[in-house]
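User: Second chain of the day. Same drill as before.
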Amino acid sequence: LLGLSSPEPNESGLIEGLDIGCGTNLIYCLLGAAVYGWRMVGVDVTDVALDWAERHIEHNPHLQHLLEVRQPAKPVPAGGSSAAAPGDSE
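Assistant: Same format as last time:
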């Protein structure tokens, strides 16, 4: 699928990709960066996935400038407020 798409570069000439649910292996981000030279962001909600994804980035120093992982903010329930839930200690 990566080869079939026709992405447009941003102002700096880079093509950027987002992998939602990148998992522990970060494979689509790694492929996008290694094969196509794209700047890739992987997103996941689990700490273990993010920890392993970071390890993969560390083990690929030649791609580090193209790779990033993020954990999204906790969602706000529909009709709810952004206040912390009782017992939530942040």
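The helical segments are 27-36, 47-58.

User: Great, on to the next one.
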